Amino acid sequence: MRSEKSANGWTETVLHNFASGAGDGEYPNPLVFDESGNLYGTSYSGVYPCDEGTAFELSPNGVSGWIESQLGCFPGTGDNAAYLSAPVIFDPSGNIYSTSYLGGNGAGTVFELSPSGGSWKETVIYGFARDQEIYPWAPLVRAQRTVAAPFGDVGLPAVDPADIAAAAAVVLRGRAHAGRTYELTGPAPVSPRQQAAAIGAALGEPVRFSELTPAEARARMLAFMPEPVADATLAILGDPSPAEQRVSPDLAVLLGRPPGTFEDWAARSVAAFR
């Protein structure tokens, strides 16, 4: 969608309707312009055979519309990327990079799309394993519709990973950001109990919250992180400082829109919890 300002207000123009045919994307992530005015993006899922996402380009057709070109089709086979989670970024050679929620070793990927003989070739650069899972709650939610975490009513301003990627794309493409530091947060503190409720709302069925003791949480953390990191993480989760709970305006300034909420993220990521 494009909005143009005129003397009578703003005019909305739909550039592309997703899920318009076989292989088209569904639930697009934020878009990125190239230097020629073309739009590039990814979609979380898609229409068969691209069920688990697409990468695409939208180019002006020289008249009054836009043409979609598919750069990547992700059917969810093998260890390929699945359920794309972020905007794209470019390197100086014209290759495209993004991330996925699933695929790789089971818990997401960083992947590259590179021009190859008139099409685009996907290469998984890194596959996250289950002990690095972006969704540590997902297995328990899938099996028992339960979230287990310590400090159930302590909120932190969790940030949407897609917003981090979108901010990175903005910063990497603008020289004005050189040497500057940005603090990226979500729009409001959200507690583990509230997160469980949001996942349940996205699933359309209740998700129970089970509060772990700090000792129970620490034992679980030690399975995939060093002891000092586990202790520091628990300290932040249980007794965050005012600075750690502060909502920063930086992300809204960078993106020109409010940060995504945890509810937005849960709705977009619901496939990981089914």
Brief write-up:
Helices cover 25% and strands 28% of the residues.
Indicate the topology.
Blueprint: E1 2-6, E2 9-13, E3 25-28, E4 32-33, E5 39-46, E6 54-60, E7 66-73, E8 82-84, E9 89-90, E10 96-102, E11 109-116, E12 119-127, H1 138-144, E13 146-150, H2 161-172, H3 192-203, E14 208-212, H4 214-221, H5 227-238, H6 242-245, H7 250-255, H8 262-268
Parallel strand pairs: 13-14
Antiparallel strand pairs: 1-2, 3-5, 4-5, 5-6, 6-7, 8-10, 9-10, 10-11, 11-12
Helix pairs in contact: 3-8, 4-5
Report on this structure.
The protein is an alpha+beta fold. The chain folds into two domains: 1-134, no CATH class; 135-274, 3-Layer(aba) Sandwich (Rossmann fold). The protein is 25% helix and 28% strand. It is built from eight helices and 14 strands. The strands form four sheets. Strands 3, 4, 5, 6 and 7 form a five-stranded antiparallel β-sheet that branches. Strands 8, 9, 10, 11 and 12 form a five-stranded antiparallel β-sheet that branches. The chain is globular. 30% of the residues are buried. The model has no long low-confidence stretch (mean pLDDT 87).
